[in-house]
TrEMBL record:
Species the sequence originates in: Hyphomonas beringensis
Keywords: Membrane, Transmembrane, Transmembrane helix
Keyword Transmembrane helix in annotation: yes
The organism's place on the tree of life at top rank: Bacteria
Protein name (database record): Urate oxidase N-terminal domain-containing protein
Keyword Transmembrane attached: yes
Membrane-spanning parts: 12-32, 60-82, 88-108, 128-149, 161-178, 209-227
Amino acid sequence: MWDFFTTHELSILRWLHIVAMVYWLGGEWGVFQTSYKVVNPALSLEERSRHMETAYRIDIMARTGIISLLPLGLHMGHIWGIQPLGGPWLVAMWILWAVWMVITWGAFAKRGTQIGMLLSHIEDWTRYILIPVLIFVSISSLLGHGPFAAGEGQRWYSAKILTYGLLLILGVVLRLVMHEWRALFPILAQGPNPEAEHKLKMSIRFARGIAYLYWVGILTTAFFGAVKPF
């Protein structure tokens, strides 16, 4: 089994990377479509709550894809000789990925509880730390200062890391929108509330605009990885 993996390591990582990208793009589309039902005042609150629950169940797969793309990309980058940190660094990276996955799925499984809220806040903070690091190292590499190699035919890698980091910013915005959904529904459960309905409608209208930009960014990131244009 191990011999098979080492022989086909790059192909397996590439396959997993494609699967993660599919879940990311497809999951975001599913949440987008479900949002139309969440804000529909013609539906009962119970029905809208079910659609919101569906959105969370779809979103967790998108988040799993997002989280997995980074270690997969860094691992492949080392095989290609673009990303210099291998050996123990790769082991540590995958351990951190496992911890991040436990936090993410724990926040999903315990959503609506105190521990779920705590894990969700921790997950948010992982992005607040990771985003500036990714943007800094990618721009530094594109300027020729490392840590990633940026010779002819290698700059696409840093560009992909940069777009990924920028997309995480949009992802944080969309996560904050979903946090707002959860805060507004208990208010709506108390009875008709035009102000809360308006906030929900405006919140999702804003999120849809971000989502269109998000998809363009995801496709651009995928293009860099597939075509390797520079």
